[in-house]
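User: My collaborator sent over this chain with a note saying "see what the structure looks like." That's all I know about it. Can you take a look?
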Amino acid sequence: MRKSILYTDPKAKEIAKIVQKNSSLGEIMLWKKLCDRQLLGYEFLRHKPIGKYIVDFFCIELNLAIEVDGVSQETDQAYRFVSEREAKLEKVDVHFLRFNDSNVRNDIKSVLLEIEGWIKEHTKPVKKADT
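Assistant: Without extra context I'll predict from the sequence alone. Here is the result:
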């Protein structure tokens, strides 16, 4: 992975702190399942600034951003910003999974299965040492 995508704009860091304090219920619920390497042993960061952008959850090892979309993304202006951000980050090999906040709240098990499926599809199995 290119280290340049991990550059953090100082303004984005401050905004990330504010965003985290205003998390949706879906974000909070998903974070409780992603934190502490609970999902297949991968470390996810919450409200991670990447350059001037902030993603809801990010796994550096997988270059995977997970977004929980709520009502705030439903306006045309917000949608354009999200699309622009995603396109720019995809150019530096960041992959995105997007989920609707209500889907996370109402069916978190399916959301976790989809994330696990993506991880398994995009990673090589770890070989166990012969004992």
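A starting point for your reply to your collaborator: The domain at 3-122 is CATH 3.40.960.10 (Endonuclease; Chain A).
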